[in-house]
Amino acid sequence: MSTPIRLSILGAGNVGQALARAFIRKGQPVTLGVPDPAKYAAAARDLGPKATLTTAPEAIAAGDVIVLAVPYPAVDGIARSQDDWQGKVLVDATNPLTPTLDGLTVGTSSSGAETLAQAARGAHVVKAFNTTGAENMTDPSAYASGGSAPFMPVCGDNADARARVMALATLIGFEAVDLGPLSSARYLEPLAMMWIQLAFKQGFGRDFALVLQRRPAHRPG
């Protein structure tokens, strides 16, 4: 990515701040949009001068790539807040989790991302940044000593939008993997559920990531 894009993140919780910190570390300015900017003023100051804190509508207007890092119940309202998204790339980093984190409210024949795409008229919806914990988003390169970067699968129906999001994932240190059309989000949201199961139910904790390990090429002799 030779020139910074207009990147906005809606939400300044763990995921929103982690992604903002990762992008800013790589020189990418970020606009954070939240319902109550005063609540997050200290966090924005900590992110430094490349972070702009504002309201959600202003962040939407400012960005051409907009990451949704909000609780899933807020997604539909955000999608319907614009009559026409005018080709903006809307990155769905959410998961349709049950309140008890023991399952998904959408799945099998559809996905949260596809539901979002139906509501967000004129947006290019891309699913990404939903399959790992916030700690891994802050600095994926922390795993470099193990030989493999955490992988970040990306899917969406618009190839250009998908490529732009893959470039963002690569910028901050993930191995971006093209998973094709948005319907592939039906696999990514359960994959996030698997990470949650391992982290919280199986005692792994949050300090692990999934990698794509390829078999070494066979060399005769």
Rg is 17 Å
Count of helical segments?
8
Strand content: 15-25%
Mean pLDDT: 92
C-alpha geometry: globular
With strands numbered from the N-terminus, the spatial order across the biggest sheet is 3-2-1-4-5-6-7-8
Note the main sheet.
8 strands, mixed
The structure class reads alpha/beta
SS elements, strand count:
8
Helix-residue proportion: 25-40%
* Topology pattern, helix = H, strand = E: EHEHEHEHEHEHEHEH
Measured distance between first and last alpha carbons: 41 Å
What are the low-pLDDT stretches, counting only 5+ consecutive residues below 50?
none
Topology:
Elements: E1 7-10, H1 14-25, E2 30-34, H2 41-47, E3 51-55, H3 56-62, E4 65-68, H4 75-79, E5 89-92, H5 112-119, E6 124-127, H6 134-138, E7 151-156, H7 159-171, E8 175-178, H8 185-201
Parallel strand pairs: 1-2, 1-4, 2-3, 4-5, 5-6, 7-8
Antiparallel strand pairs: 6-7
Briefly characterize the structure.
This protein is α/β, with parallel strands linked by helices and 221 residues long. It has helices at residues 14-25, 41-47, 56-62, 75-79, 112-119, 134-138, 159-171, 185-201; strands spanning 7-10, 30-34, 51-55, 65-68, 89-92, 124-127, 151-156, 175-178.
Structural description of this entry:
- It is built from eight helices and eight strands; from the N terminus they run βαβαβαβαβαβαβαβα.
- The longest helix has 17 residues, at 185-201.
- The termini are far apart.
- An eight-stranded mixed beta sheet has the order 3-2-1-4-5-6-7-8, with helices on both faces.
- By secondary structure, it is α/β, with parallel strands linked by helices.
- 33% of the residues lie in helices and 16% in strands.
- It is globular.
